[in-house]
Design goal:
207 residues; alpha/beta; 6 strands
Length: 207
Amino acid sequence: MHLLLIRHGETDWNNQGRVQGHSDTPLNANGIAQARRLAARVASAESFAALYASPLARARITAEIIAQPCGIVPILDDRLKEQMLGEFEGLTDKELEQRFPGALAAWRADPLRSPLPGQEKRSDFQRRVQSFLDDVRARHAEGTRVAVITHGGTIGMMLATLIGLDLGKRFPFWFDNASLSHVELSGGRVRLRLLNDTCHLRDGHGK
């Protein structure tokens, strides 16, 4: 099975450096344009067996834009939501440091032992991502293409789960808005074929 992992387009909170988590922020004008460019790219490839999406607006709207030229209806799944980050949501790094001195640095250094106030446990986050991956692998045969439109943290947790990274450490991934990553699952083997690709957002691509 080929998993195409797509991060949602840009939001105003992305531009402002605000923590989003479960907050239901919409795409801004640039985010909509990014989603359209990405849609043009993926629609030119082979068809999808399914397209799954987080129900949060920024991912759902990205999925709807991508789904239209692909002739497919997105399947919304709560397990694809971003990790809930409690009282950090809506705040910038500067505001976080003022309100919770030292908490951000401690969380980044040791996310398991320094949880944020009201945060979804990382182990719970991993379990719901694992549950989604198990279901998708059971539903779709090898060789099929499945798209997943979700959030940066969720994509990072998916990849960490698939390749067996230590949940107690920060993951070595970054995912830009409207980026595309490609994972091939064949038997028990995982191949990362593309990571955080945004070539469709450059001039001359995906217009």
